[in-house]
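The record is kept unedited without comment:

——
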Amino acid sequence: MFDLHLSAEQLEIRDTVREFVAREVKPVALKPQRLEAFEKPLLTALLAQASQMGLRTLALSEDAGGAGADNLTCCIVTEELAVGDPDIAATLAETSALARILFDRAMSPEQRERFLPQFLKDDRYHLAFADHEPGNDDALGVNYHRPEASETPNKTSAVRAGNAWILNGVKDCVANGPVAKLIAVRARTSENRASTFLVPRETPGLSVREHDPAERWVHGSCGEVVFKDCRVPAENLLGQEMVSANGRGWFQALNIGIGRAAYEAALDYAKLRVQGGRRIIEHQAIGAKLAEIAIRLEVARSIVWQAAWASDHPEAVADRSLADLPHATIAEVFTSEAIYHAVKDAAECFGAMGVMRDMPLQKYVHDALVCLHSGHGNSDAKLRIAEALAGYRRQPAAPVRAVESI
């Protein structure tokens, strides 16, 4: 049964993060000099504070030193953080998700013994997964209802040299790349297989270039990672084949946080602004607009929570309690469109002030557009839903030892 009652622990986590965002994050994130779309350096000091609260290790199992939170709890935390700053939310969500995949599932005991203590000790120790390469077009529209290409598209090579691997290649659009201290890299071996290597940031031959804000269309920290004769010990090869970790809904929760920040700003303003002898919230046009925003937010949150709950309870699909559909993809399409409309309506509540560059509403509109158009956008997502409706099951081209980003 899908229960909307949050546990006492979930409520405590939500309230703690909400208080932290209101007290520490928002006053800094909404300073006038940071409201420009291309003038938003990552708030690293606040990121470290959030890490000290355990949010960086939120999804990591308790046995490994984390909180062992389920996907629903992670969605709640991501939304609360995004109300204050989507970049902080995205960075922590990426690291937290990869920590669960790498330390709890993919690493061997020896690898875990080497890397886990470093990760737990350092609040600024973030993780990244380098997979995408310049010029790769992996849009679903290219092979809709067709098998994946038979050969791996990875141009980054890994050549065995004694007790090490030599990596050469370029990865772009690497989430957390500029701040990560450990990068999981997919590379093509001599057997033409895609394998994943653990590469510490200080490894000679590895360099990172942060994407120019004008080129970046994602939330969080993103950059290009270059490998030039990068020598990685043989024991850094991930030997376990990974199962895809789709369906968490964290990114959609981030989107809801953006919409909620815009809604709360519009609601506060509508209660203060007086026109025609009464507060504008008492005017029908503004009241109806705020009601529509609230409806979109509540429905979007419900579908994101359902997707997160479904990923935590796969048996609900197995016993036909839920339809066998990509719930996270459905949530992605609905949420990105609903939140964009909600944020635009919130800006309209401010009238001409809503588009002023020293007001946060123009920032919220930009942030919502990033969620709407990042990656391949909703066109690709809708094709995935269409394949599911037709009963088509997409198979990977070849066995891949890899981890999957959020």
DSSP finds eleven helices and nine strands in the chain. The CA atoms of residues 17 and 53 lie 9 Å apart.
